[in-house]
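[retry 2/3] Integrase: previous attempt timed out, resubmitting with same input.
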Amino acid sequence: MAKKEHLIDVQPIRSKAQIEDMKWALKRHCSERDYILFLIGINTGLRVSDILNLKRDSIFKLKSKKRKEFQIREGKTKKARMINITPIFNEVITYASELDSDWLFPSRKGDKPISKIQAYRQLQKAGDFAGIQSIGTHTMRKTFGYHFYKKANNVAMLQEILNHSHPKITLTYIGSNKEETDNELDNFNL
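[retry 2/3] Integrase: success.
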């Protein structure tokens, strides 16, 4: 099932209204867990595997800090990265406070987090209800990257956040080049 994601062209969610639709669908048709996973994903740019490995304690340790950030070691790159969740902290801590598990995204099948396949299924389900196509686990990371780039207009900073080796990789990843090309082609007429 996870390989299927590679067959579709997963794009960022470019519209803020569609992001809100996705949040609504996750809360209404999935669960608070799935909503918080999406919220962290679109606000940090973490890969889904790194999000799923988060522990509840990493959130609780932030209570007394002004800047709600913690360090992780990314699974794919093995690089250390600071994760700032200050803007979404209240929602995340409220959710984390109600958990009985050490994992932030616990599975019902033993003491472990949900699988990437389960995360994918829930995102797909919410995407169907929200009327958003081409949803996958990379949608969250790409959505973060797209909106960060549009707001900050700093590809070098985004490249560093996403741990990409070249700015062109970053722009391609977030679909910026495709969007700009599509916009030009939409208005091209000889």
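[retry 2/3] Integrase: The two ends are 44 Å apart (CA to CA).
[retry 2/3] clearing retry counter.
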